[in-house]
Amino acid sequence: MKKPGLVIVDLDGTVVAHGAGDTSLTAAAEPSPAVIEALAAVQAAGVPVAIATGRAIWGALRTARSLGLTRGLISAAHGAVTYDLAAGAVVDSHMIDPSLAVKSLAAADVRTAFAVELGTVGWRHTADFARDFHSDWADVVDVATLAATSTPRLAARLPGGSRYGAGLRCPLAGKLANDAALDPGMYCVEVGFNGWIDIGPAGVTKATGAEAIARHHGVSAADTVVFGDAANDLPMFGWAGHAVAMGQAVDEVKAAAHEVAPAVGDDGVATVLRRWFR
Question: Tens of pLDDT along 28-50?
């Protein structure tokens, strides 16, 4: 690929190790100096840097600040929320009515706990939703109140799920998603880790989030390079002119990329970007 006109990076597993983000079970990790310097070199060359992440916006902002990003856009919640760093505000969001999804998931497994993104404030959640990770929290509500909350993302979680590892999905969460059989015409479903499922607007993915970023900057998909490591990055990989998978990604993700970088722990993003920006 020629020198890109836009660089879009995933966060967890790409610029920081897994376990560093909004659903982290540990304290947030920091990006390496090499990655921070590489992204600074991109911006110094006049090329915009953006983020496309599955995290909620408040979790994404923490790492954006650590990366030294003060302008440009963040696509959060798997493409459902777009945030302008310079303006300090959400500039676009795609919302769902979570009520039918809550009903279907609860019927599939009565142990399911729920949370929804509440603006930029934090998670609105049921009392049984485990707060065992670093995040921002809004309020505790009953299921009926939560189900009536318009939101860009509903999170459903089962106890005893598998921990995240190398981009693998939790089998308990996968079974819950299959049993609930949510209508794909209404919802986009992402099976995650630790018993976790994300439910967002139908047709909204990291690809649509990346497209909104590119349109904002007047850059084509063909001139955009994207970095990611997990299954939720696959739509974005299919959209971009050049997709880079991290070295620790599973084979499915690597196969969809144009290039495989060194692993996140080996500063793969910095290694690739130095080809064009120094």
Answer: 579 999 999 999 999 999 999 99
Pair 98, 147: CB distance under 8 Å: yes
The pLDDT of residue 214 is 98
161 or 2, which is more confident?
2
Domain ranges of the chain: 6-93+204-273, 99-201
What is the predicted pLDDT for the residue at 19? 59
In this structure, the number of other CB atoms found within 10 A of the CB of residue 102 comes to: 24
Q: Which CATH number fits domain 6-93+204-273: 3.40.50.1000, 3.30.40.10, 3.40.50.670, 3.40.50.1220?
A: 3.40.50.1000
Q: Give the burial string for 38-73 (b: 16+ CB within 10 Å, else e).
A: bbebbbeeebbbbbbbbbbbbbbbbbbebbebeebb
Global pTM reads 0.93
Q: Do 123 and 56 form a contact (C-beta atoms < 8 A)?
A: yes
Using DSSP bridges, classify how beta strands 196-201 and 6-9 pair: parallel, antiparallel or unpaired: unpaired
